[in-house]
Amino acid sequence: MTSPSASADAVPRDKGDWTQWLFPGPRRVFTEAEIERSGLKTWSTVVDSYVMSNVLVLGLVFYTMLPRELAHVILIGGLGMASLGLGVARWLWRQPTRTRFNGATFALSVLMVLFTLGMVKAGFRAEARDLLPFVAGGMTLTVSSWWFLTLYRTQQLSARLAELDAQEERIAMAQRLATAQIQPHFLFNTLASLQHWVDTRDDRAGPMLRSLTRYLRATLPMFEQDRLPLEQELQIVRSYLDIMQARLGQRLSWSLDTDETAQAAIARTSLPPGTLLTLAENAITHGIEPSLRGGHIAVRVKAAGGHLRLEVQDGGQGLPPGACEGLGLANTRERLRAQFGGRATLGLESGPVDAPGCLAWVEVPAA
Fold this sequence. Notes:
The protein has 367 residues and is α+β, with helices and mostly antiparallel strands. It has twelve helices and seven strands. Strand 6 (345-350) and strand 7 form a beta hairpin. Residues 1-12 have low confidence and may be disordered.
């Protein structure tokens, strides 16, 4: 992803950028939104104290070399000019454009000319001549500092925005890959069952096909979305469990319960697509299918303490010793972190003592 304003910085290399001879400085202009997004707005006050202390030390060192009548005026004026230069530097830091840089340079030139003419008019012609090298040197140093500051700031913001663009692209790609990996094995197994029932004229084929149609209609848009309303996610889980119940028959029963207090939050909350579906798929794949007797899957949504807790508990064989987190849960955890930061958690634990199986849960901030 490329920032729109980045194109303004592009210069045809074969023709060169002749405008730099007349109006030097970076061509790119950052919007306020881009600077805010970069997170690099703060000006370090260490720069102020460093510059001011150096100007003061230089002024004291060369104090005896200055015209006696004007020494204290020059020292105070030098500190004032340093303070003014730092003010301009902060101004350039907030928005490093070449319009600002050239405007500041022009204003400083006019100020220095007026200062010199003022000294001449006040009768200090000889002193003005003696100070002219210092004035020219100070002005050159100040303009050069502004120039390098403007270039550095432009490159700093450009690099940071490019880094953020690349980071967002990686996250989006990870989300698409994580979403895509949910589909294939489930679809192939379901289609195989459907094919068998159609061939054998099994009455279960019709309901299975309708459930699969609802499931695909709800899940295919997930590929284009970064977030999915929780209500839609719950509907996908219902369709998925309907299909799996048709495939597994009496080996699977399931329920979905939501607290009354959670209803309002459910309507406002969104999740990375496939979050709850991944937990339901794991419950089927690792809990119910390996168990000969099958089991029950309970999906619950609760609200407490400003969070929504989504639970998927299966009555399967439970967590084996040394069980570790798989790719699906790792991807889900990463996508939750991308959306909610550290405010969302995902857990996997053995079921209660009086109930076999496994409990997977997710807690997200209630919207």
